[in-house]
Amino acid sequence: MRLISVITLVAGLLMPSLAQANLITNGDFTSCPGCVNSNAFETLSGGSSAIASWTVTGASVDFIRTYWQAPPLGGNSVDLNGNGPGTISQQFSTGTGREYRVSFYLSGNPDPGSGAVKTANVSAGNFNQDFTFDTTNVSRQNMFWALQSFVFLAVADTTTLSFSGFVDDRSWSAAIGNVSVVEAPEPGTLMLIGGALFALFGYGAAMRRRHA
Fold this sequence. Notes:
This protein has helices spanning 2-18, 187-210, and strands spanning 41-45, 55-58, 60-64, 77-79, 86-93, 99-108, 117-124, 127-134, 146-153, 158-164, 174-183. By secondary structure, the protein is α+β, with helices and mostly antiparallel strands. It has a single domain (20-203), classed as Jelly Rolls (Sandwich), CATH 2.60.120. The strands form two sheets. Strands 1-3-4-11-6-9 form a six-stranded antiparallel sheet, with no helix packed on it. A hairpin with a 2-residue loop joins strand 7 (117-124) and strand 8. Helix 1 packs antiparallel against helix 2.
């Protein structure tokens, strides 16, 4: 019975940290009320707000429905170069000086037309970095979606998360899907969870020795 109590305690500590709400709205790109057709993909020009909660700037992006395999968690995806390099971004509330973890799935347009390696620039808060994806052996039926993540420090009470295409990719660029942002656990919380797990495993080992 005491083991069950310890497990319950650990679960109570873990769940609030692991099951956080996504601060990004429409991160799976399922809602596009401004889209005007139901084709396999649709090109959205700079200035478009067709994709709910997201803004397109730069040249254009392609909103992908069924043109290629959906990201692992479902929904639609975005090719960051439509007829040229574009950017898709969303602003959300943050706490200045707090850390947040961004996760997203990355792939690349497999159609011939540019080099195999596709590049997406991602920025949020104090973070700005290029992510690359090699489309060698990638097909529309198997996009080999790769999970990416990073932690950024919020420098204001609102933060803009942006994904930008690369000019050399022309109209065949990196693709993104399943975007999420959650607040990163504070070090004290991680230490508390780690201590609870250590106590749980220690208790289990002690019980096994007792009954050996």
